[in-house]
Write a structure and sequence with these properties.
The chain is built from 9 helices and no strands. With 307 residues, it is an all-alpha fold. The protein has one domain: Rhopdopsin 7-helix transmembrane proteins, CATH 1.20.1070. Helix 6 runs antiparallel to helix 8. The C terminus is likely disordered. This is Transmembrane protein. Keywords: Membrane, Transmembrane, Transmembrane helix.
């Protein structure tokens, strides 16, 4: 945990180096794909999609700096706060899919209020913990970490519940299209639905993975340790096996959401950015039957017929 140049043992240096290399690789991938997406957007990505991509890139930049130079706990607090922002935006997206348009403004206002609370909490924690070292985890820092991971877990559960409802309704709409497939754009609509279902599944599960790992790790450290030294051992590797385990856990607990965002925004939309090879391996027959232009926006599916 913490910066490479401040590591206090070979094991800590090894863990920081692994995290730095992987985070740098992910950041490079994000920048290259974001450049491609923004150059060829043509309405494919909505404003909130672009915001998610920008926030994900910013988090990975901060994460790379964290593994290189961090010595204050404010770095980790900032990374966790950005994770909460991403999860809150994902909640807004998933809820808006099934919520009536008349209530969207209320939803967005609630989202703005949530972002304000996260910002105020980050400011409060930053002022109180900016002098604390990432290598010494005191009790109030344990409580802060546990609280943030708990809030993230609650948000991810909300996203999962609404995501489950979205997928259910999309499957219903898919069956509706199959029964009423007189429209020439049926195959294209079916492909859009399949893509949207995959995207929603990724979004609803990614938060559970990230904050589930984060919360379990924080809980384990808090409830099974009685002193600061014991708690710190749950985050500082002391053997080769803990180097690998902590590296994996740390990357999962910080990077799952940003990676999920780019899977949804870029990988699921490769074909619409002019790239023919899609990692989801939709059959070529679906591609060949499309009658609408590739640059048409993948809008959220209207499901008024089945409500």
């Amino acid at each position: 945990m913490g910066a490479l140049y401040k590591c206090q043992s070979n094991y800590q240096c090894s863990e920081s180096l692994i995290d730095l290399i992987i985070s740098s690789g992910i950041l490079y991938y994000f920048i290259m794909k974001a450049k491609l997406m923004f150059e060829r957007n043509n309405g494919i990505l909505l404003l909130i999609d672009q915001a998610l991509c920008a926030i994900s890139i910013f988090q990975m930049m901060l994460q790379v700096l964290y593994f290189m130079f961090a010595k204050s706990n404010i770095w980790l607090i900032s990374l966790r706060s950005i994770g909460l922002v991403l999860e809150l935006l994902i909640c807004i997206i998933l809820i808006s899919v099934i919520l009536e348009k008349e209530k969207h403004e209320q939803l967005f206002n609630a989202g703005r209020f949530g972002l304000l609370l996260i910002g105020l909490y980050w400011l409060y924690q930053g002022l109180n913990h900016y002098q604390e070292s990432v290598y010494i985890i005191v009790e109030k820092q344990q409580i802060s970490n546990l609280f943030m991971s708990f809030i993230g877990l609650m948000l991810s559960i909300v996203a999962f519940v609404f995501g489950f409802q979205c997928v259910h309704q999309l499957h219903q709409y898919k069956e509706y299209l199959k029964l009423d497939n007189k429209n020439d754009s049926f195959a294209h609509q079916l492909l859009k639905l399949e893509t949207r279902i995959i995207q929603i599944k990724i979004l609803k599960l990614s938060g559970l993975v990230q904050f589930g790992v984060q919360f379990c790790w924080d809980s384990l450290a808090y409830f099974l340790s009685s002193t600061t030294i014991e708690c710190t051992r749950y985050f500082m590797p002391t053997t080769l096996s803990t180097v690998l385990i902590y590296s994996v856990l740390k990357l999962i607990s910080l990077t799952t959401l940003p990676v999920a965002v780019f899977l949804v925004c870029y990988e699921c939309n490769k074909e619409y950015f002019g790239i023919n090879h899609n990692i989801w391996n939709f059959s070529r027959s679906h591609r060949s039957l499309k009658v609408l232009p590739d640059h048409e926006q993948l809008k959220y599916v209207e499901m008024s017929e089945i409500k």
